[in-house]
Amino acid sequence: MIFEATPMLESTQLHIEKELSMDKILIRDLKIFAYHGVNPEEKENGQNFYFDIDLDVNMTKACYSDNVEDTVSYAKVIKTVSRVFTQDKYDLIERAAQVVANAVLEEYPDVFSVDITLKKPEAPMKADFGWVGVSIRRER
Fold it and tell me: By the 8 A CB rule, do 74 and 25 touch?
């Protein structure tokens, strides 16, 4: 008996692959200068932002092959994040984080989910703090 690929079978296969994959690619303290913020001076002067990114992927094949083509290249992901994060100016870092998450999931089909923490250490507030930020998780 021959089974045709159906959305249900594809969905089940993706779910099984997700369950089997406990692997993560980690990017920490990715510094990007950009022009996001509610205040006009933030959009004019810009400031540094920092990303922590976790990518859920199945790295089994790469662990055995030692071939970069068998994994998600963190160098390529960093280029994607930098490109989309600096492409436009947003009022809210919530929106900026969402745009980044969308791009990662769209451009890297082997990424099952992405966790993004976006830190804004230079937020213009009269307070003594290390950073403010948002953290989001997006899945297929």
Answer: yes
Q: Specify the pTM.
A: 0.83
Please name every residue paired with 31 in a beta bridge, in sequence order, or none if there are none.
Answer: 50
Q: Can you give the three-state secondary structure of 82-106, one letter per residue?
A: HHHHHHCCCCCHHHHHHHHHHHHHH
Among candidate residues 31, 43, 119, 120, the one labeled active-site is 120
Question: How far apart are alpha carbons 114 and 108 in whole angstroms?
Answer: 11
**Residue 61, both tokens:** 């094949």
In the predicted model, is pLDDT for residue 4 greater than 50? yes
User: Active-site residue 43, yes or no?
Assistant: no
The 10s digit of each residue's pLDDT in 92-133 is 999 999 999 999 999 999 999 999 999 999 999 999 999 999
